[in-house]
Structure formats: structure tokens, C-alpha cells
User: What shape does this take?
Amino acid sequence: MVILAAGSAQRMGQLKQVLPDDDGVPLVVRAFELACAVAVSDEHPIASVNIVTGHDDARVRACFDVDKNVKTRDHVELAFVHNPDYASGMGSSLEVGIRAAKEQGASCALVLLADQPLVRPRDLAALIEGARKEDVAVAAALYDEVLGAPACFTSPCFDVLIERASSTRGGARALLRSGALGQVLGVSMAHAAFDLDTPEDLERYRARHPPREA
Assistant: This one.
């Protein structure tokens, strides 16, 4: 699995990856725990999670309270992969994450954004199941008639992603539309339509999902 958490969040005005969800858990940690929730199922094994960092790398890593770059939780290996070129756009972070998954010998790479707090384990499981269908190269979330993240890319896509992701305006979304990756299966996922880009988005999220009392 690849979690993209490298951006500077200029539109938000603060590092959104470390903002707490309604349980008080930093969004990037919540994304990792989401991966672990899927990994505990024998039907959807996930051996490793690569978190792509960039802007304020130290603060993102500090959310996990680890001194080393790799640790294991629930039998899932956590690795941090830094993208020094994060300012060029999400495509470069996607390239870094997919390259790491390829080096690990992954048969597929499930890509998740750190700022999609409403995505649930069943959503990710549906993507993995979709990517296992014959002739499907990618299973991607479908919302508002748009294909986007999260998405599960099969290994035959890796080389094309590595070659084109960093130079494709719009990152994975543009590649999904281009047809360069092969057959793309859309998986209906209303939860994925909401992401935290602006202070207004955060305000709406907090209104609907207030922090739970201790």
C-alpha cells in the first residue's frame, strides 16, 4: 500500500496530514490504521505500507512516534519514503511510492491519500477485489463520475506509472483517463468524494464528525 502524505497543503494553510480526525488520531496515522484493518483479513493481505513524505517530513514521521524508518504493526511493515521533489506535484510522490512497491516485489499497489478521512476498510477491500478481476489493470474509486484515489494498481502498471506519473499533469487521475494503464474498473465510492483541501473542508468535517470526548 502507498499513502501519499508529501504535500505542503498550501490551500489548507497548515500541514493537514497531521491534523486529528474525530478520534484525535492524526490523519496520516488513521490512513495507516485503515491499511492495517484491511491487512488483518487473509483475503486481502497487505505486507507493507509505504508512506511518501515530503514537506515537513519530520512532523509526519513524528506522528508515529518512532525513531527508526521502519516498524511493524499488526504484521504490517511500515516504511517512510521521502520525495525531495514533492513541490512539483502529486505525480512525483506517486512515482516514488510505486517505485518502492515495485522494489518490494508487490503484486499490486493500493494508493490512498492521507486527506480522505471518510474512506473505510470495506472501500479498500472492494478495490483489491476489483483489481483481481481478469483483464483489470486498475481498480479506482468512482465518485461524481470521476475516477480517482484511492486506487489499486496491478504490477503490470508499475513501469508505466513510474515513467509517466511525475510528468503527467494531474497525477494518477489523468493517467486513469488516458488509457495508458490498461483496463480501469470504476468502484463506486461516495466516501472518497470528500477530502480535506481547505479550511472550509475542515470546518465541514468537524461539524459532521466532532471530536469524541475522552
